Amino acid sequence: MRHTRRAVLAGLAASVSLVRKAAAETYPNRPVRIISPYSPGGGADILARVLGEQLKNEFGQPFVTDNKPGAAGIIAIEEVARAKPDGHTLMLGNVTTNTITPILFAKKLSVDYDRGIVPVARLAEYPAFLLAANDFAPRSFADMLAFARENPGKVRYGTPGVGSYTHFDTVRLARAAKVDLVHIPNKGGGAAVLKDVLTGDAQIGIVNVVSAAPMLKTGQVRALALIYDHRLPEFPDVPTLTELGYPGIGTISRLGLFTTGGTPNETLDALATAINKVLAAEPMKETFAKNGMNANPTADAAAAKAWLAEDMASWRSIIAEVNIDMEGN
């Protein structure tokens, strides 16, 4: 009897494995949605669209970007978590949407993030600038801090929203520099914050290089500092925050691709393999070079899970340390 039961269980396991393998081999069998939690025009949206085009060429099915901005990524997360776990609904997220939000806004989520979302691959990383409006009197980072100290509560900084990584970064910087800054949250991504700086709604703001570079090159905004581990050849005169005396402050944003929890590992690995292939191809290299991104993919689904777990552990410590004012200040 025991031998018979073991044989049945072994047979069932083999059948499940064959079904999963067959599913992976036929993936995708219909158009795939890549949900972007930000408005069109930002770094995440640009990468989602270019990546989708390359994956379409790889798999022979459309990969269509669907923008679902708002609520720090909660809208996008919940839609992906409720989708069928077959890899046909993906999400392109970053440290705000897929690391900070599940920790900071756990009670606002109507889904179990750990069960409902699984990482497919880390994709890329990119630097960010601390920008200033051209009509803002201080001309350098040191001048900005001096002005802020002399005028408490008079310097406004923009972010994509309360609890975003740039919100945390600016609060940490303000505390380290002992200045009082006023938060101007926006519901969009880097492009929205850039617009706030351009219009003067905010005087400064951290904006990723993808969104900021064109405006910097035309002189519409100024860069006070760079958030990265070295200066950029295209902007050699912009010092890093480390050089300016604030090491360890500022987030190098990393973009990742996520899907519905319970998606077979075979499908996840098929996606990861394709992603590594297209990221190494010339079209993606050109996109990265043009937009200031650097490819930084994980090898497979297991490596992606380890990356996300490490990132979330790090941010749990930061969130506990900063204890940010969730009213937005």
Secondary-structure blueprint:
Blueprint: H1 2-25, E1 32-36, H2 43-59, E2 63-67, H3 74-81, E3 89-93, H4 95-104, H5 113-116, E4 117-126, E5 128-133, H6 141-150, E6 155-159, H7 165-177, E7 181-185, H8 190-199, E8 204-208, H9 209-217, E9 221-227, E10 253-260, H10 265-279, H11 282-291, E11 294-295, H12 301-322
Parallel strand pairs: 1-2, 1-3, 6-7, 6-8
Antiparallel strand pairs: 3-10, 4-10, 4-11, 5-8, 5-9
Helix pairs in contact: 1-10, 2-10, 2-11, 4-12
Report a brief summary of the structure.
By secondary structure, the protein is of the alpha/beta class. The chain has twelve helices and eleven strands. The protein starts with a helix and ends in a 7-residue tail after the last helix.
Name the beta content range. 15-25%
The assigned structural class equals alpha/beta
Count the beta strands: 11
- Name the overall outline: globular
- Percent helix among the residues? 40-55%
Ranges with pLDDT <50 over ≥5 residues? 13-20
Q: How many domain units?
A: 2
- Give the CATH class of the largest domain: Alpha Beta
Which CATH architecture of the largest domain is right? Answer: 3-Layer(aba) Sandwich
Query: CATH topology of the largest domain, which one?
Result: D-Maltodextrin-Binding Protein, domain 2
By DSSP (H or I, 4+ residues per run), the number of helices equals 12
Strand numbers in spatial order across the main sheet: 2-1-3-10-4-11
Multimeric state of these chains? Answer: single chain
